[in-house]
What we know:
Elements: E1 7-12, E2 16-22, E3 28-30, E4 39-40, E5 43-45, E6 50-53, H1 54-61, E7 68-69, E8 80-83, E9 86-89, H2 90-109, E10 114-119, H3 125-137, E11 142-147, H4 148-160, E12 169-175, E13 180-188, E14 191-200, H5 205-220, H6 227-243, E15 249-254, E16 259-264, H7 265-290, E17 297-303, H8 310-320, E18 325-326, H9 333-338, E19 368-369, H10 429-441, H11 448-456, H12 474-478, E20 510-520, E21 525-536, E22 545-556, H13 559-576, E23 579-581, E24 588-593, E25 604-613, E26 616-626, H14 634-657
Parallel strand pairs: 1-10, 10-11, 12-17, 17-18
Antiparallel strand pairs: 1-2, 2-3, 2-4, 5-6, 5-7, 6-19, 8-9, 12-13, 13-14, 15-16, 20-21, 21-22, 22-26, 23-24, 24-25, 25-26
Helix pairs in contact: 2-3, 5-6, 5-7, 5-10, 7-8, 11-13
Amino acid sequence: xxxxxxxxxxxxxxxxxxxxxxxxxxxxxxxxxxxxxxxxxxxxxxxxxxxxxxxxxxxxxxxxxxxxxxxxxxxxxxxxxxxxxxxxxxxxxxxxxxxxxxxxxxxxxxxxxxxxxxxxxxxxxxxxxxxxxxxxxxxxxxxxxxxxxxxxxxxxxxxxxxxxxxxxxxxxxxxxxxxxxxxxxxxxxxxxxxxxxxxxxxxxxxxxxxxxxxxxxxxxxxxxxxxxxxxxxxxxxxxxxxxxxxxxxxxxxxxxxxxxxxxxxxxxxxxxxxxxxxxxxxxxxxxxxxxxxxxxxxxxxxxxxxxxxxxxxxxxxxxxxxxxxxxxxxxxxxxxxxxxxxxxxxxxxxxxxxxxxxxxxxxxxxxxxxxxxxxxxxxxxxxxxxxxxxxxxxxxxxxxxxxxxxxxxxxxxxxxxxxxxxxxxxxxxxxxxxxxxxxxxxxxxxxxxxxxxxxxxxxxxxxxxxxxxxxxxxxxxxxxxxxxxxxxxxxxxxxxxxxxxxxxxxxxxxxxxxxxxxxxxxxxxxxxxxxxxxxxxxxxxxxxxxxxxxxxxxxxxxxxxxxxxxxxxxxxxxxxxxxxxxxxxxxxxxxxxxxxxxxxxxxxxxxxxxxxxxxxxxxxxxxxxxxxxxxxxxxxxxxxxxxxxxxxxxxxxxxxxxxxx
Length: 661
């Protein structure tokens, strides 16, 4: 006679590791680490030669950051890393994380021998072999490796049931801390088969954090004076990013300044958009090249913790015309889905003989030294079984509310504990340079959020806005005060009905996606925007050109706030490089080009136009890329610059007509 037994589904991630425990009665619940379902994947080599994970690693890293490896998954192709002067095998780092998972599972419900362990779809045999070997060293016996997109698709099929018929294709967009994987799968009688897949190994939520940090450095100068302050800042940046998924503004504590500085959702989205753009282009290209086409995609599923960012769903909908489906806790989707991969949705768990456990204790190391030598079990008494997480399992999923108002993601059941993500030195040097260049160029993108947050903080600064150095912003102080000539609440409900991009249509005649509008009301600044995605429709792929154009109108409740953000725009223009004023357009207007970096320098063209008239600002962003890799000629740049000015003037004339007092 056979009996069902415990199983674990584990998603070993770049920044965090998730484990879902499936009991013999088929109930599934998150495994908690220090009260949270998120275990930091960071590993620290202690002075005692032992490897520490989770909250312990974060605590010890305060005094010895050089002993920490924050993202072991990113080092999967390396043999070893240097921690505090000692060489530590990458396999041993992974063993340490998986051993922590095994210990927690044993503490809750007894030893677990069966493991479903996920991996990125594009991992080859060597990477998968190292992962499986690490799991064996951690004490797991029956190890099943599952592709992350397959696990995610299976999770959604399990929760949606008949909503995904046989033969239907689904698209899984997995944005984690350090990677982005996109996979197109087709549902079969036995599960899912992969149709196409692509991924980026150096784009994720960490890059968004780095963009915010780089912007703060460009704006305020020195941000920290010690490693502990640096970790504190990065932790605050991550928390602020998560909060802005639910709120329109927040503040970030800057240790070196001894005060908090504002960050608005509009500004965060401006910094995030360049980071996400490559993932959106990759997704669209993969679907087009697969031969399936967006019209045949039955569902677009967002997984990974970084998919909580509302802009992710917005940009995907803009590019593909498909309303994304999101889970209440996207971090948990892959780990839980791995438990369902080899089972038909709704079926009872498979049964297998229960293997004997040695009487001497659990069959895996309780603590690992950097040589992965098993040592004795820790001297603490087993804790009671952790209670189920409230609200779990999640309710059946529903498609996301139609664009442009994606739903606000629910916060995690418990705040993540562990070390903040690694600062930019953990990234390749080329990517750091490119990222900083992008951030400096978009430092004031959609700056209405900053102005609004600055306004809310005026009482802290004696009624005056703070400038980049911490002093009073004289530009704002000298600007005209008062509500201005335009009514805050009269920002267009649908900016797409007012915007005019027709001048671009002779160069980019093909429409990739319908124009999409977003309106964000606020007591301090109201914004309305419209985004276009178009292409030069040609039969030769090498002649393909695509463009993204967005018109953004901001109405402020005080002229000085509009002046402040326009001053910041001018400062960014000086940093970016060539720029010029536009006479006769509002009270002040400027247009500038942001130079490309790295391999994309030739084929990309980025233009930004910022204009202020009284208490209203218009920002136009033009981004174009060409497949042949050839540089844009000066004539082409001048032509597109003139078109951008013409489109901006036509759009502002229509938008402002209904806003005047």
